[in-house]
C-alpha cells in the first residue's frame, strides 16, 4: 500500500492560525509515503509569507513535492513581469516542474500558472514532453501521479489533454477551487484538495486529503477540522482506471 498526503491552498499570510497549528501534526500522524502540496502556499507572494510557508512546509513529511499556485506569483508588481517565480524558487523550491520517485510511484508536478494570466492556468508543449518522459516512461506498474494547481475543468487549463495523452497519469492532484472532490475521467482519477489553512473555505471546513493506493483501488480520505481537531469525513473509493493496473 502507498499513502499520499495531498494539501492545497495554505494562503499563509491570510490563514487561520488554528488550522495551521494542527495541520502538520495531522499529516505527520498519517505517515504518508509522499506529501504533495498543490499550490497557493502564500496569499500574495510576499517575502514574509514565503518565510511562513517555508517553515510550515519544512515540517511536513518527506519526500515533498510542491508546485506553484496563482497566489504564489506577485500580483501588482514589476516582479510579475521580470521575476514572477523568483521568490518561490528562493524560498520554496528551485524546481518549477519537480519529479519525485518512491517505490511503486512516480510523481510529476507541473507549473500551471503562467505570468501573463491572473487566475486561470495553462500547460505547454514543453510540459507535455516532460510528462511523456517522467510519467510515460515510469517503471511498469508504477502509480503515475500528476500534480498541479489548476483542475482540468471549466476552461482553467488549456493544454490539459495534450499532457494527459503524453503522460497517461493514473492520479491527478489539484487545488484552486477550495472545494474537495473526487472525479473519474480521461482515464485517470482527479482529486481536488480543499482549503488547508486559508480563510477562504467556501462553506466547507478546512481540509486535506489522504490517498491510499492498494492494488487497483484508490481510497481518498478527506480530513476535516472542527473545534475538536482533525477528523475523517468523507471517504471515496474509486478503481484505478489505467491499463497499467491490469
Automatic annotation (TrEMBL):
InterPro entries xrefs: Calcineurin-like_PHP, CNP_phosphodiesterase-III, Metallo-depent_PP-like
Superkingdom: Bacteria
Calcineurin-like phosphoesterase domain mapped to chain residues: 4-179
Keywords for this protein: Hydrolase, Iron, Metal-binding
Signal peptide: none
PANTHER family with a match to the protein in the record: CYCLIC NUCLEOTIDE PHOSPHODIESTERASE CBUA0032-RELATED (PTHR42988:SF2), PHOSPHOHYDROLASE (PTHR42988)
Family: Belongs to the cyclic nucleotide phosphodiesterase class-III family.
Record protein name field: Metallophosphoesterase
Organism: Paractinoplanes deccanensis
Lineage of the species this protein comes from: Bacteria, Bacillati, Actinomycetota, Actinomycetes, Micromonosporales
